[in-house]
Design goal:
By secondary structure, this protein is an all-alpha fold. It contains twelve helices and no strands. The chain has a single domain, classed as Farnesyl Diphosphate Synthase. Helices cover 64% and strands 0% of the residues.
Length: 283
């Protein structure tokens, strides 16, 4: 365990949005929330490592078995073992974990998302379910707010994944992952190629503009949906919403060049301010 008191996922280095989200998570829940992030990262990474599709599918079958056995004492992965012992009862269900496996499997398809509706479903499975489990771990202060908190999680997760797709487009294209809605590509004539100078063609940029609009709506809806009484408890998600909103603004201003992503100090200021506002929301 690191000096911060938690082990962040491999894809969340110090200074990243997820790292700051964990840093501002209440100490009593930090290890559980970190394990949820690590579990999601491990499942998604199982299809992203260089390998034949058959090998990736075999890894996913292992994860399906791991998900189905969750809660029955058959957990094998370190993250699932920790969560089986530490997570509040009922917060993590096998079907939730299977949704993440389904999201990973869709990345193996030649056309993962034929339209935006399929992309929205992918985002929910890849990230919305994770945020629902995190919100459930942190809990609600008033039972009547549970539905609103769940909606907050769903929209937050969708917004986060959309921003990740935008910022990671170049890497995804290099790896053969094409997550932009296929009908958008056909409609605009986007080439989905990155030039030697790192630039993308105008039609692909138009698709990213549209995607950025959807991400902005999702993140704004997430923040406005959460009742004031739940904001201190759900500080983790509010910090993430602020950080990814900041990422999106910087990317959009720089024509979606990932070099424009905020640095460590910028993220620290954004996270601290969001955490402070969350703590004062119900005072």
């Amino acid at each position: 365990m690191s000096d911060t008191g938690f082990d962040a996922p491999e894809d969340a280095p110090p200074g990243s949005p997820v790292w700051y989200g964990l840093l501002f998570t209440p100490a009593e829940h930090r290890e559980t929330v970190a394990a949820l992030w690590s579990l999601r990262a491990a499942i998604m990474a199982s299809v992203r490592r260089p390998s034949e599709p058959a090998v990736a599918r075999a890894r996913l079958e292992w994860w399906r078995a791991e998900a189905r056995g969750f809660g029955a004492g058959r957990e094998q992965h370190p993250a699932t073992r920790l969560l089986a012992d530490a997570a509040p009862k009922g917060v993590i269900q096998p079907e939730y974990l299977l949704e993440i496996v389904d999201a990973a499997e869709s990345e193996l398809q030649e056309v993962p998302c034929r339209n935006y509706a399929e992309l929205a479903l992918y985002c929910y499975r890849a990230s919305g379910v994770l945020q629902e489990m995190i919100v459930g771990t942190l809990g609600v202060s008033e039972p009547e707010n549970e539905r609103a908190a769940r909606r907050f999680a769903q929209r937050l997760g969708s917004g986060i994944r959309l921003v990740e797709i935008i910022s990671g487009l170049r890497g995804d294209l290099a790896a053969g992952r094409r997550l932009l809605p296929r009908d958008w590509i056909v409609e605009t004539g986007a080439e989905e190629q990155v030039g030697e100078d790192g630039r993308i063609d105008p039609a692909t940029r138009a698709c990213l503009d549209r995607l950025a609009g959807e991400a902005r709506i999702a993140l704004d809806e997430a923040s406005s949906t959460l009742p004031a009484a739940e904001r201190p408890r759900q500080r983790t998600g509010l910090v993430l919403a602020a950080l990814y909103r900041r990422q999106l603004a910087r990317l959009h201003k720089a024509a979606f060049n990932p070099r424009a992503l905020p640095g460590n100090l910028d993220n620290l200021w954004t996270a601290w301010r969001a955490a402070r506002q969350a703590g004062r929301a119900h005072q």
